[in-house]
Amino acid sequence: MTPAKAKKTLIARRDELLGNLDRIEDQLDEPMPKDWEDAASERQEDEVLSALGHSDQAEIRRIDAALARIEAGEFGECVQCGKKIPEKRLELLPDTPFCANCAR
């Protein structure tokens, strides 16, 4: 995967995640129902949404780090051992900072 293709893929995914976070934030800002059963159900949904939001934020941080590696000319190099990350791995995980050996 070329750095230019990776950058395009990463930016598109980042935009998608930011949209998800906006929708999650909107849903979490909705007022709680007065009925206690509905409120309990809403609370459970809020906990799931919050967990999804944290997961999306973590992925955005990984994407931002990958974009920084692209700008630094270090994309595709393992940050731990310095070896080239195989193309297939980068195709599947364009934000990965590690080769398969170092990721273990």
TrEMBL record:
Residue ranges occupied by any Zinc finger DksA/TraR C4-type domain in the UniProt entry: 73-104
SUPFAM superfamilies recorded: DnaK suppressor protein DksA, alpha-hairpin domain (SSF109635), Glucocorticoid receptor-like (DNA-binding domain) (SSF57716)
Entry keywords, A to Z: Metal-binding, Methyltransferase, Transferase, Zinc, Zinc-finger
Pfam families, per the entry: DksA-like_N (PF21173), zf-dskA_traR (PF01258)
Example of a GO biological process term: methylation
InterPro entries: DksA-like_N, DnaK_N, Znf_DskA_TraR
Location of the region described as Disordered in the Swiss-Prot/TrEMBL record: 25-46
PROSITE patterns for this protein: ZF_DKSA_2 (PS51128)
Domain DnaK suppressor protein-like N-terminal, residue spans: 7-70
Entry coiled-coil feature ranges: none
Zinc fingers typed dksA C4-type, residue spans: 78-102
Entry superkingdom: Bacteria
Biased composition (Basic and acidic residues): 25-43
Molecular functions per Gene Ontology: methyltransferase activity; zinc ion binding
PANTHER family: GENERAL STRESS PROTEIN 16O, RNA POLYMERASE-BINDING TRANSCRIPTION FACTOR DKSA-RELATED
Protein name: Dimethylmenaquinone methyltransferase
Protein source organism: Paracoccus sphaerophysae
